[in-house]
Every structure is written in structure tokens, then in C-alpha cells.
Amino acid sequence: MLGSEGFLTLTIKMRVRPEPECEEKLVDLLKRYRDTLNYSVKKIIEKRATSLSKAHALLYRELKEAFYLPSRIAMDCYREALSIAKSWLSNPNKGTMPRAKKRRG
After folding, report:
1. Is residue 32 part of a domain?
2. What is the number of domains present in the chain?
3. How is residue 48 annotated by DSSP?
């Protein structure tokens, strides 16, 4: 039967060293992503936007325009934020609101 083949997804963890001329841009993108992730988690929790469509409507344009994230990264960010927010909201023993911390060192 055509179309009945499944897909196999493989996730790997690896270290990479960016080219020196790209390193500063990459670090800047990662810092913006962290700040955007914290902002998105907070906004999703405040607005109780716990569906993907609500999170998209609430955040996508703002993440692209205010935080200057590329489209794919903006979508990944609000999806990760939604996952974090849903997990925190469903936890009966809530602590402080989840937050991505600054890197030490």
C-alpha cells in the first residue's frame, strides 16, 4: 500500500563550534530566544492561552516583530513556552513561575 510507510524521527545531541564570524550572532539569537521564551511562558499563563491556536494568535507576530525572531524560531519558541506553561498549570504543587535562567560564567 502506498502512503502507509511510517516515519522514524531521530534526535541527537551534539556540540558544535560556530565559525568565529557567526558566533556573536548565534549568541545574540540564543539570548533573544531565552528572553522570548520567558516572556511567552508568562503571557500564556496570564492569558490562559493553553491551545496552540490561541498561543499562535497571542504571540507569533509579536515574537517576530518585537524580538526579531525568524518565523521558524518564533513558532518553536511559543510551542516550547506552551508546553512549559501547560505543565506548570497542571501541577497541583505550583512553585514560582517557570523561567529560563541566564547562563553562568
Report:
1. yes
2. 1
3. T
Are 54 and 91 in contact by the 8 Å Cβ rule? The answer is no
| Contact present, 77 and 37 (Cβ < 8 Å) | yes
Enclosing domain of residue 66: 23-89
Task: Report CA-CA distances (Å) from 90 to 63, 65, 67.
Answer: 25, 31, 28
Q: Where does 38-105 show beta strands of DSSP type E?
A: none
Query: Are 37 and 69 within 8 A, CB to CB?
Result: no
Inside any domain, residue 67? yes
Which residues have CB under 8 Å from 78's CB, separation 6+? Answer: 40, 44, 55, 56, 58, 59, 60, 63
Q: Tell me, yes or no, whether 6 lies in a domain.
A: no
Count of Cβ atoms closer than 10 Å to residue 88 Cβ: 16
Task: Report pLDDT digits (tens) over 32-87.
Answer: 999 999 999 999 999 999 999 999 999 999 999 999 999 999 999 999 999 999 99
Closest CA to 52 of 85, 25, 11: 85
Does residue 12 sit within a domain?
no
